[in-house]
Amino acid sequence: MQELGMVKITSDKQIKVLVLTGSLGHGHIQVANAIREMADRWDHHQVNVEIIDYMELVSPNLHDISSTCFLQWVKHFPSSYGLLFEMTRKDRMLAQFIKSIRFTSLKPLIQRIEDEQPDVIISTLPAASAAVSKIKERGLIDCPAVTVITDHTDHSFWLHPYTDKYWVGSEDAKNKLLRQGIPASSIEITGIPVRPVFYETYDQTLLREQYGLNQEATTILLMGGGCGLIDSTLLRSLEEAEWTRSLAVCRNLRPE
Predict the structure, then answer these.
(1) How far is it, in rounded angstroms, from Cα 174 to Cα 168?
(2) Taking a C-beta distance cutoff of 8 angstroms, is the pair 167, 123 a contact?
(3) Residues 6 or more apart in contact with residue 86 via CB below 8 angstroms
C-alpha cells in the first residue's frame, strides 16, 4: 500500500492533497509541480493534488512586489542576504523574533482549507509551513502537515512545532534536523522532488541535434536556479575555456 504524507492511498477513497507553494524564487514552485506530476502517474481516482500559491492567496496585492524585491535583494546584495541567512539558521533569538511576526493574515488560508477539506497539506515554502503550523496549534485543522525542504538545509525558518513530517533531500539533511531536535520519526528521506521527466532515459545524440550542440565538444549544463543567479565572470570564463566548445544554460540566466 502506498502512502503520501502519512495518508494511506487505497483504491476505495480519493486522497485530496493541498500543496502550498510560493514564488520567492522558482524552486518552491518546481517542487510543487513535481509532486503533482508524480501523483498524476497514479490513478487520478486515488489522488487529487491542488497547488496554491500561498503568497498570492494571503497577499494578492503585494505578492508580485515582494517577490521582485526579494529576488533583486538576493541578486544585488547577496552578502547581506547570506549574513541574515546565517544569523537565523539556528532557532535562536533573532530567528524566533522574525518567525513570531505575522506579516499576513491567516484568514484566507483557513478559509481555503475549510473549502478544500484536504486529507494532507504539503508545504514547499517556509512561510506556508509556518502558517499551517500556527493553524494546527490553534486546533483549527487536524490533517497531517508535511514540509518539503527544497534545499539541503536545516534552516530554522523551515522548522515549526506542529509540522508532522519533513521530507528531506539527503541523509546529511536528516542528520542536520536531528541535531536541531526534530525526532527521527518526523523525518523522511525522499530526495528533493523532481519532475518525472528527469527519470527518463534519452538519446544524447538526438538531443545534441535538437539543440544545435556540437556532437564531440564537452558540453556544460549550468543550473543557477529559476533566476539564473550565476556570476557573469564564471559564465565568461567557461565560454573562453579551451576544453569546452559548447555551453548549455538552464532557465533564465542571461550574461550581463
Answers:
(1) 6
(2) no
(3) none
- 89, pLDDT greater than 50: yes
- DSSP 8-state secondary structure symbol assigned to residue 75: H
Q: Which of 57, 55, 48 is nearest to 70 (CA)?
A: 55
Q: Which of 105, 27, 34 is nearest to 70 (CA)?
A: 27
Tell me the pairing of strands 47-53 and 15-21: parallel
The neighbouring-strand residues paired with 147 are 123, 166
Tell me how far apart the 2 most distant CA atoms of the chain are, in Å: 62
184-121-81 Cα angle (round to 5): 75
Nearest to 124, CA basis, from 62, 51, 73, 180: 51
Residues 60, 116: Cα–Cα separation, whole Å: 19
Beta strand residue intervals within the chain, DSSP E: 2-4, 7-9, 15-21, 47-53, 120-123, 145-148, 165-168, 187-189, 219-222, 246-249
State percent of the chain over pLDDT 90: 40
Looking at residues 44-51, what average pLDDT do you find? 83
Residue in the structure block whose three cell numbers are 507553494: 21
Asked if residue 22 has pLDDT above 70, the reply is yes
How far out from the chain centre does Cα 14 lie? 25
